[in-house]
Write a structure and sequence with these properties.
Radius of gyration: 34 Å
Strand content: 35-45%
CATH architecture of the domain at 62-164 and 221-232: 2-Layer Sandwich
Helix content: 25-40%
CATH topology of the domain at 62-164 and 221-232: Alpha-Beta Plaits
Low-confidence stretches: 215-236
CATH superfamily of the domain at 62-164 and 221-232: Protein of unknown function (DUF541), domain 2
Number of helices: 5
Length: about 260
């Protein structure tokens, strides 16, 4: 009687163990034997590797303009005076467009001597004073207006206007999440095609990507804008030409993901 009871208990325990084992096997992917280079056999989990990339275009909400002054002359004091006058022209135009002073970056005036060499002798030709500015605005129309206003100024060099994003991290996050979802959907399609399901993520690697700014026009565009305006009438009465400034930024991301298969 006791032996029969023990047998029943053993049988019940055996059934429970088998059920637990079946559940474990179902939850874990089956390992596949793979021959290693040294002749041994290793067991690997079935997996699938996919890659995906995503590029999205966003409207620019920040525009950085570069300007510089270069004054030459034989008298040092006259050069300093001239560059101060030209600097005031830039700042006055900034003020007229209601651009905050905090959005204007200017470096210190740099002045150097110019020399000439004749008959093994060095002679002072004069002085060169330079100063650069970076001005940031939030609207494309304001950037175009400032470029147009400063284009006729003979001593003002107009450099590129860069279209950018105020919150680059937030925008990049959107694209990274989008490319991750794209990779997962791609892996799921492959898994469905062979009657499998996706398991855990075994490995994930970002493959480059970033923020790409379209090359913007240089000084010639500013001059062309001014000339076009003067043909139509006074520069001040002409609408700024926004077509010379980019209005969007491309953000891209790439990823490689390894999923386990069940």
């Amino acid at each position: 009687m006791i032996s029969k009871l023990l047998n029943i208990i053993y049988l019940v325990l055996l059934i429970v163990c088998v059920c637990i084992l079946i559940r474990i096997v179902k939850s874990e992917p089956a390992a596949v034997p793979v021959a290693a280079s040294n002749g041994t056999v290793a067991f690997e989990v079935p997996k699938i590797e996919v890659s995906a990339s995503e590029t999205k275009k966003f409207a620019a909400d920040k525009f950085e303009m570069g300007f510089s002054l270069e004054i030459r002359g034989k008298d040092k004091e006259a050069v300093f005076k001239r560059i101060a006058e030209r600097r005031s022209v830039i700042l006055e135009n900034v003020k007229q467009l209601d651009i905050p002073q905090s959005d204007v970056e200017q470096n210190s005036v740099d002045i150097r001597k110019e020399w000439t060499y004749r008959n093994n002798k060095r002679e002072l030709v004069g002085y060169v004073a330079t100063q650069s500015f970076v001005i940031t605005v939030n609207r494309k129309i304001d950037a175009a207006a400032l470029v147009q206003a400063l284009s006729p100024e003979p001593d003002v060099e107009i450099h590129r206007t860069s279209a950018g994003l105020k919150d680059e991290n937030a925008v990049q996050s959107k694209v990274v999440k989008a490319v991750g979802e794209k990779a997962k959907a791609k892996a799921k399609d492959y898994a469905d095609g062979v009657g499998a399901t996706l398991g855990r993520v075994l490995q994930i690697n970002g493959e480059g990507g970033g923020i790409y700014y379209r090359p913007i026009r240089l000084r010639t565009n500013g001059l062309m804008m001014a000339k076009s305006a003067m043909l139509d009438g006074a520069v001040a009465e002409s609408a700024p030409d926004e077509s010379a400034i980019a209005d969007s930024v491309e953000v891209s991301a790439s990823v490689r993901v390894v999923f386990e298969l069940k």
